[in-house]
Write a structure and sequence with these properties.
Helix content: 40-55%
CATH superfamily: Alpha/Beta hydrolase fold, catalytic domain
CATH topology: Rossmann fold
CATH class: Alpha Beta
Radius of gyration: 18 Å
Strand order of the largest sheet: 2-1-3-4-7-8
Number of strands: 8
Strand content: 15-25%
CATH architecture: 3-Layer(aba) Sandwich
Order of helices and strands: HEHEHEHEEHHHHEEHEHH
Largest sheet: 6 strands, parallel
Number of helices: 11
Distance between the termini: 31 Å
Shape: globular
Number of domains: 1
């Protein structure tokens, strides 16, 4: 992203923050308590993928946490309870009376219903950032059947997969992580998940989507998910980029999160 784009994103962030503060005014002129932003990374990568956005939210006066899901793949199945437990543990030390905005990226979206149900906190709204949208109830597979042969070919004799960025060609990875330092951090912290993680079926508590929800689209690969969000009547915003766009344009993504938090409220 060049300096002009960075300046535009910064101005958008300032404007979004101003709108967000005005939107939290009550009829009596008092400001409602700011929600806690909980940024949930895909278990396939690590918390550094959300860290720059968390920093900008804090700079704008918000509290933000990025729970680590790096240990989710340790041990055997089921894995989904560890996802919910890790997010809950990541909120340790925060005010339990403060409502949260859950922002989930990529396949962390599949776990949002169980995260919300296990969190023990009021959820002000949920935002899917280039993320999979679960069905209204029942269950959902972590990986679709037609993707499993690809994963099985990648697994080693112990049943472990290589790090996520190793699945793809350099021409796919380079645009997602154009900054060499950021790329090094993101790549080095990635876990090697077991194949069994992707074979799991995650429960979807009925009625989870009665929560206020919004969708933030980055990449063409998730346009069908954004279309499903629109079909459900959710507000949708687009910040065009690749699948890890939150590490490329954290100011623009932060601005869009604030806009969606207001639109979904």
């Amino acid at each position: 992203m060049d300096r002009t784009d960075a300046h535009v994103s910064s101005r958008r962030l300032e404007a979004a923050l101003d709108r967000h503060l005005r939107a939290r005014q009550t009829d009596c002129g008092n400001v409602d308590p700011m929600p806690l932003f909980v940024l949930v990374h895909s278990p396939s990568v690590g918390p550094s993928t959300w860290q720059a956005v968390a920093d900008r939210l804090r700079d704008a006066g918000h509290e933000a946490v990025v729970p680590s899901l790096l240990s989710v793949g340790q041990g055997g199945p089921p894995y989904w309870p560890r996802v919910a437990a890790s997010v809950r543990a990541g909120l340790s030390g925060t005010d339990p009376s403060r409502p949260v905005v859950l922002a989930v990226h990529s396949n962390a979206g599949l776990f949002l219903p169980v995260i919300a149900s296990e969190l023990g906190r009021a959820v002000a709204c949920s935002i899917f950032a280039d993320a999979s949208v679960p069905p209204p109830g029942g269950s959902t597979p972590v990986a679709e059947d037609d993707f499993l042969p690809f994963l099985r070919r990648l697994a080693d004799d112990s049943g472990r997969l290589p790090q996520w960025t190793s699945w793809w060609d350099e021409e796919d990875v380079a645009p997602m992580l154009p900054d060499p330092h950021v790329r090094q951090v993101v790549v080095e912290e990635q876990p090697r998940l077991p194949l069994d993680y992707y074979l799991e079926v995650v429960p979807v508590p009925a009625g989870w989507d009665q929560l206020r929800c919004g969708y933030l689209l980055f990449s063409q690969a998730y346009e069908a998910q954004a279309a499903e969000a629109r079909r459900r009547g959710w507000p949708v915003r687009t910040v065009p980029g690749e699948h890890l766009h939150q590490v490329v344009d954290p100011a623009g993504v932060t601005s869009a999160l604030l806009e969606l938090a207001d639109a979904a409220a």
